[in-house]
Amino acid sequence: MNLLAKVKHELEEVGLVTVYFLFCFGIVLTLKKLFLAEYQIEFYAVSVVVVGALVAAKVVVILGHTRLGASFAAAQRPGLAAIYKTLIYGAVAFVLIGGEKVFHAYRGSRALGPALVEVWEHRDRNVIFAKVICVILAFAAYHLFEVTDRRLGSGTLWRLIWGKR
To answer: Which pLDDT value is given to residue 72?
Structure first.
């Protein structure tokens, strides 16, 4: 497989998923900006949204090809498979988002215990939970769409939504 074919395959597999997560995380960013504007706080993090969407899309595609993502989903009802995948991916998101906050606190204190306490006691937990809830909702919608499309036949749901009557 030549380089152009590999790039085309990667764009087809990850591209639409990335656009979906870019859209979802863009909505979250917009809501955050609107909430903070009430307090005259300027906030710019478009790069965080783009990187987050790329990472989320790649993780979804990679985990979808692993036994963890595929074996349970194939053996269960579509709704249960979507819930299972959403919970697993949500747990991973919680660890990554919480880990990022702890990492930044650790850099300041150079000790894991005080870093964990600092993150938990200084209300970063509310930010972590808010971000995780938004990410879980995005994962849930993606997985419900994915299992419904697979159940109807790959591409059928997409054509039903976007095709002409």
So the answer is: 65
